[in-house]
Every structure is written in C-alpha cells, then in structure tokens.
Amino acid sequence: MAGGAREVLTLQLGHFAGFVGAHWWNQQDAALGRATDAKEPPGELCPDVLYRTGRTLHGQETYTPRLILMDLKGSLSSLKEEGGLYKDKQLDAAIAWQGKLTTHKEELYPKNPYLQDFLSAEGVLCSDGVWRVKSIPNDKGPPPLTTSTTPTPLIPTEGSIRVWSDFLRVHLHPRSICMIQKYNHDGEAGRLEAFGQGEGVLKEPKYQEELEDRLHFYVEECDYLQGFQILCDLHDGFSGVGAKAAEMLQDEYSGRGIITWGLLPGPYHRGEARRNIYRLLNTAFGLVHLTAHSSLVCPLSLDGSLGLRPGPPVNFPYLHYDATLPFHCSAILATALDTFTAPYRLCSSPVSMVQLADMLSFCGKKVVTAGATIPFPLAPGQSLPDSLMQLGGATPWTPLSACGDLSGTRCFAQSVVLRGIDRACHTSQLTPGTPPPSSLHACTTGEEVLAQYLQQQQPRVMSSSHLLLTPCRVVPPYPHLFSSCSPLVESIPVFGALCSSSSLHRALEALAGDLTKLDLRRWASFMDAGVEHDDVAELLQELRSLAQCYQDGD
C-alpha cells in the first residue's frame, strides 16, 4: 500500500450498522473529493487505511472500501450484491454451454429517486450505462469532474429512505456484500432476532467459509494490516454474528487490533415487550462475548439507557434530529465515529489500533464510552481558548453510549479528538501587554491549549489528544440537522472522546439487574435459538465481573 499505510479492514454486520456505515462511507467519499482540491491543506487522514485500489475488467482503476458487510435477504433494495463496478456484460455472454438457455429474472426494486437524481447531477453516468467512480487521490486516477456553477444539493427526503442502500453513494467491491439468505429483512417471519441464531449463522460451513474467503482476499493484499473495526448491531441476532466474527478474527489474526462498535438504534418500542426483552438479552450477550474477543468495545446509541428503563434520547444543543429515524440517528453516530477513529487513520504519527486499545483498556476495562459535541461551537472571531472556557467545568460532550447521566462519574483514561478548527483560531490573539484571561489564553499552540484544557477538566486522567484541521464532511445525502446554520453546510468541527468511565459500573450493573428480573420461561423462543439456562447464569456473572472493573476508586 502506497506510503506504508497501516490498513484496516471494516466489518459491517446488521441493518442499522448498514445505516451508520452508509453515512460513514459517504463521508469518506466526500473527503476524497476534497483531497484533490489544490486549495485544501495537505491531507491529515490517510484514505489508504480504509480503501484499496483495484482494476475493473475494462482496465479502469478503482478505489473502493476495504469492507465486508453482512445483511439479510431483502435489505439491498436496488443495490446489486456483486456491486456495479466489475460486471462485464460481454463476458457474461461468453458461456461454454451451447444449448438452449432459459433466463429467470427477479423483480427489480426501483432505485431511490435521490440516487437517480444524484447520478444525473454528478455527471458521471456514462453512455455505456456505467457509473464511473470518482477520481482517486494522490494522483491515482484522472482529475475530478468540475462545473462552473455549484449544483443545488440533493438531500433525500426521510420518506424516501427505506434501507441504507437508498442513500449509499459509494461503489463497493464484489467481495464486500455477503447476504444471509436464510433470514428475512422484511415481514414478521424468518427474522434474525436472537443472539443464538446469529452465532448459529457463522457456525454453518456455508457462511463461515464465505466470510473466511472474503477475509483472506482482503487481508492477503495488505502490506501492514493493523487490525479490524467491526460495526455490529447489538439489539438483534447480529450481536451473535458479531461475537462469532470477532472470535474468528481473534483466532486467526492474533496480535491485530479488533475494535468493535456495538450499535443500538433508538428509541425503545414502548408497548412491544417481546422486542424490548430480546433487545435487552441480545445487548447483554453481545457486550460480554464481543468484549471477550475484541481489543476494545464501545456501545454507540442515542438512547439514554442500555436497560429496560429507556431514558429520553440524548440532546445536542446545535442539532435538530428525529430519534425515531434511523437515517438521522445513524448520521450522528457516523460523524462521531469518523472522529473517534481519526488517531489510527493519521498520515503522520498515527496511534495504532492496538496502542489505542492498550491505553484505554488497562486493568480489564475493555469496554469504553463515547461522547461528542456535534458541531463544536466556535463563533466567528472566537479563539479556541475562548470557546473552551465558555464550555465551563461541565463535561463538554453529549454521551453516546447509553450509560445514563454522567454526573459524578470518573474517567480513568481517554482519547480525545478535536477537528475542523482553523489554525488561525488555535491560540488567543491578545494585543501585546494584555494579561491572558486564563491559562489557556497563554498557550502558544493549539495542541497545548487542548492538552491544558483536558488536564484542568480531569487532572488525574491519562489523556491522548489530537487537534486536526480537517473538519467532518456533511454534504448530501447527510440530513440537514443543523439548527442555526444555512442549509448549505458542507463541513463541521467536531469534538469527540472515548473514555474508560466509572459510568459503566452503574450501566452494566443495571443491565445485570434487569436480566435477573426476567422470567426466562416466558421467553423460551429466545432460549430455543441456541442459549442454555447455564449460559444466562454465566452471562450474569461475567457482566458483574466486568462492571466491577469500573467501580470508582478501583
């Protein structure tokens, strides 16, 4: 890989993970377009960490995500399982069999109107019917298409989004999509609802071999694979798929980093006891098993609680979002994820996945919480010291791990990223002779400002911090969530943190408490999917042991 990039392979498991992933890859795609702009500063984030180069059967060079995703039958809408880059109609016709052929075609899903308009507006739908990929950064492809006028941004309506592929604007490699045909995305029958079902999927030779083949394909072309990031639904049977996948990775690629992002859509379904109980059980089993096989696990949700007593969805002072829409919730989580993962995607002096996990997971604390300020408030004319002082002594970010109220909790270690702040704003521009209003205003670099702020907030905490110029891209199809901005927002500053926090003691204990109150005889269908009563007893013991790691003062 060019430049000695430390490659990461992404696994995307489940439908809500597909929503988060679609926004995530759209944001990477938008950043690739900016990387070719001569007016932009040199790239701080290395796209080769997440992307791979390839070549189509027509000889066209491509740049696609290093990605394996798994979802259920009926979840792709108009997206083809093999993608659209490598298909060659002329080769399809070259069939050795000379006899009579009968073709059976499935009824095609109509393409989302946003994607139809997007292809036309981008101007890359060629006469041969092929949607040409965007230019590749670092002189790996032709220059980007340019227009003399700025086109009207195309923002899909919430009503037009049924599945994640309705707004994915990135081409995928044919080895990326792996469909689980034995379970259905739609309808009430044949659903992947329980942890045991998910584990069972990857115990079947068919799916196990398919995943292994795809892993080998991507891993073998890497020069320096630093590890795997897993985006995994926790609320349904994909928690079991994720646990089994993490176990496979740990067994076969020992020593590589495995960072798992456990995703929970919100809110709870009030009045739907079965779905809520399954969600509770799947979340508990998923967290414990993923923790056993991952370097680091971080639950991500806009809900207020992991347990059966859902709090209201979290509030962002500068965002207006609908917590019932996966399209909105996943956009916010993808923006946070794009910030949290920056340390192991840096061009220079990156922190490897293993190093990041080691810093945060000492003493058995392999689960971390997440928080973010989206967008980071920096008024015109303000400096970074001004803005940080205005935040006051309170925790500056909105919690994103469904661990409840963070007041009175303690942070043991944290990884902090502040991105999208112009260099001219990094330090205070006081006139000579003016006494600095705070110690932050006396700092001479932005990095010093951020480090000093974190030291003041958490004096005894091990902190790793990064200050980046690169903002987070939020161009369409990112939803318009910004309360006080014009509708043409293209990028925003974001302040995010991963934290090993004592809030997990309370959250995990509460999760175990909810489980002990269940009468498992009423939920025999969950147990029949491959979970024994002894498994539940062991789960409770492991949950409480994990919670004990985060007891304040430990």
UniProtKB/TrEMBL annotation:
Where is it predominantly found? cytoplasm
Domain DML1/Misato tubulin intervals: 157-346
Q: Does the keyword Cytoplasm apply?
A: yes
Residue intervals of the Misato Segment II tubulin-like domain: 6-118
Gene3D superfamilies given for it?
Answer: Tubulin/FtsZ, GTPase domain (3.40.50.1440)
- Compartments (UniProt record): Cytoplasm; Mitochondrion
Q: Which BP terms in the Gene Ontology apply to this protein?
A: mitochondrion organization
Task: Recite the UniProt keywords alphabetically.
Answer: Cytoplasm, Mitochondrion
Whether Cytoplasm counts among this entry's keywords is yes
Give the GO cellular component terms, alphabetically.
mitochondrion
In terms of superkingdom, the source organism counts as Eukaryota
Q: Could you tell me which InterPro entries the record lists for this protein?
A: DML1/Misato, DML1/Misato_tubulin, Misato_II_tubulin-like, Tubulin/FtsZ_GTPase_sf
Q: Name one Pfam family in it.
A: Tubulin_3
UniProt similarity note: Belongs to the misato family.
Q: What does this protein do?
A: Involved in the regulation of mitochondrial distribution and morphology. Required for mitochondrial fusion and mitochondrial network formation.
Q: What is this protein called?
A: Protein misato homolog 1
Source species:
Sapajus apella (Brown-capped capuchin)
